Amino acid sequence: MSVTVRSEQACFGGTIGVYSHASRETGTEMRFSVFVPPGAAARPRPALYFLAGLTCTEETFMIKAGALRHAADHGLVLVAPDTSPRGLGLPGEEDSWDFGTGAGFYLDAEAEPWRPHYRMYSYVTRELPALIEAGFPVQAGRRGVFGHSMGGHGALVIGLRNPETYRSVSAFAPICNPVAVPWGEKAFGHYLGPDRSRWTAWDASLLMRQRPFPDSILVDQGMKDQFLDGQLRPESLESAAAAVGQKLVLRRHEGYDHSYWFIQSFIADHLAWHAERLGT
Amino acid sequence: MSVTVRSEQACFGGTIGVYSHASRETGTEMRFSVFVPPGAAARPRPALYFLAGLTCTEETFMIKAGALRHAADHGLVLVAPDTSPRGLGLPGEEDSWDFGTGAGFYLDAEAEPWRPHYRMYSYVTRELPALIEAGFPVQAGRRGVFGHSMGGHGALVIGLRNPETYRSVSAFAPICNPVAVPWGEKAFGHYLGPDRSRWTAWDASLLMRQRPFPDSILVDQGMKDQFLDGQLRPESLESAAAAVGQKLVLRRHEGYDHSYWFIQSFIADHLAWHAERLGT
Q1: In chain B, how many H helices and how many E strands?
Q2: Is residue B125 classed as helix, strand or coil in its secondary structure?
Q3: Which residues form a coiled coil (chains A, B) (predicted)?
Q4: Which residues 64-93 of B have a C-beta within 8 angstroms of A?
């Protein structure tokens, strides 16, 4: 597995880099960014994966979230993958901002023509961690995951499906119940096909009812979020948690919207949350 | 003076907004961004102006520098203007990234066709502060200024020319001696004309020798900065400071480049520097 360094720059005493490689899962060149905190060369650190939202790339979170300062303080390696394969030229891939390129939804597609390439779940949970653990100073198997919006959905689903691998899970304004909202219906309908019984394996509120996550989950939600009514459904996650005794810290913040200004404002709490659970 | 709200979003308990207005100084619509920290409505705060570098806009610093957290903590209002007038259609204005649009150099042009519009010095030191003090919860006359690269030049020049108004000055990788480097020669040659005696009023290293700033100045410089050799000349500022007894904290950082990753890494120190001097 060969990784190309696109850029590496000093930041907070560590290194922020953008890398690319030929992905086996997607059949495309994939990019990801990594922040390595100071001191990691001498003592490998836990890896915390951030999954970004619709239209974002591997750069968005690193630049806009203000997370690196806290990752440096806590000694966490931050990893941010891209949000989908790119440049495949599949029909419809570029037609809308909430489907196709930039909108991989962190699942493994089952319907054509997406099936062979839109495999962001396997990419994020297997191929990318293998690359990271081989090439960066991280502790193998010591992972946390968090994300925003579509990436919050991804983080919740990945944590709930792999509690043995991911020790900490949090999300900003996640799509909590995608089978029941327009974004999810559009994406799942195309990627997974019309049989809705195939969708449930990728819905955090449904997964949680089957098997809660063994630790508490942190979710922040802005109350002026322009997508709160209709797309996010934190109340579905809350109901699922209540039904099965899942510990859930769901914080509703008056006045905050869906942007990275919202994420910035609460990012310190998320880094502390993961650091505590990953044992930095 | 009428200001249009382009956006206003909650961030760190305060508000980040982008605003526009018809500028008297430039004869164009100008945009600026403002972060108002929590509590400012009840008790107005000092205003700290950030001047960005070549190609940047009023948004760059607010999104990329990670400054808002610290401004909220210290109770500082942050103001970031655009880097030049835009859309004038002057010949040559769009031909290069280091001159014209996005490259106003924070001076008042004296040569045609720039003279009537490229008046960023008067804009930043007079027109914009008047707008800010009229429309935002800031303490009148309690100002600090800092900036990056071309904006570091701007901050140093503005502080040195107006020590009674600006109580605190700092810079990241400033163009310290523009009359002697390609960026400055190109910009000053066009904006000010070929008579180099007209240039000295806009060069920090020369201004400092005439009249030092009454307080210490903080400058951070990365030693892997791709523009350090040839464009920035921190040694000129250092020599000027030594010659006239100017207090100067010039920190050279191994491994850091010219980017906002560098700025992020040391932004907390700059906010603390200004907060201490502005008496928040």
Answers
A1: 9, 9
A2: helix
A3: none
A4: 64, 66, 68-69
Specify the residue for token string 């119940």.
Answer: A177
Q: Considering only CB atoms, which chain A residues are within 8 Å of B256?
A: 9-10
Residues facing B48 on adjacent strands? B78, B144
Read off the pLDDT of residues B217-227 as tens digits, 9 standing for 90 and up.
999 999 999 99
pLDDT, tens digit, 9 for 90 and up, residues B153-181: 999 999 999 999 999 999 999 999 999 99
In this prediction the ipTM stands at 0.93
Q: Name which of B51, B234, B70, B65 is nearest B143 in CA terms.
A: B51
Q: Which letter does DSSP use for residue B86 in this model?
A: -
Q: A15-33 pLDDT, tens per residue?
A: 999 999 999 999 999 999 9
* Cα–Cα distance measured from residue B152 to residue B100, given in angstroms and rounded to the nearest whole number: 18
pLDDT in tens, B32-42: 999 999 999 89
- DSSP letters, A21-73, are EE-TTTSSEEEEEEEE-TTTTTS-EEEEEEE--TT--TTHHHHHS--HHHHHH
Is A82 in contact with A57 (CB distance < 8 Å)?
Answer: yes
Domain spans of chain A? 4-278
Homologous superfamily of the B4-278 domain (CATH): Alpha/Beta hydrolase fold, catalytic domain (3.40.50.1820)
Per the confidence metrics, is the pTM higher than 0.90? yes
pLDDT for res A141: 80
**What tokens were used for A262?**
């919202």
- Cis peptide upstream of residue B182 (ω within 30 degrees of 0): no
A114 touches B: beta carbon within 8 Å:
no
Active site residue B153: no
